[in-house]
Design a protein that fits this description.
It is a single chain. This protein is of the alpha+beta class and 87 residues long. The protein is built from two helices and two strands. A hairpin with a 4-residue loop joins strand 1 and strand 2. It binds zinc ion.
Length: 87
């Protein structure tokens, strides 16, 4: 592997071959998805590169509820209540 990959931007992945182990350099995963209102970590949202996400179905990328993948369940509930009260 080229020297340009031997830095902290890439992560090392040890790959077992038939009778030896080599190092592969892969790009790091993006940060965990956060709630747009409180900043809490979102569950059910995969942490992977776009290349991997492209092959996932829509239902595996975010929870199936209003604001799924944008707001956490608590903030979603509060937002829905305040929106309902506005009228
Ligand atoms: Zn939240």
């Amino acid at each position: 592997m080229a020297f340009k990959h031997r830095n902290r931007s890439f992560r090392k992945v040890l790959v077992k071959l038939t009778n030896s182990v080599t190092t592969h350099y892969k790009k790091r995963n993006p940060a965990k998805a956060q709630c747009g209102r409180c900043g809490k970590e979102l569950h059910g949202v995969p942490r992977a590169r776009a290349v991997v996400l492209r092959n996932l179905s829509k239902t595996k990328k975010r929870p199936e509820r209003p604001y799924g993948g944008v707001l956490c369940s608590k903030c979603m509930r509060e937002t829905m209540i305040t929106k309902a009260r506005a009228y």
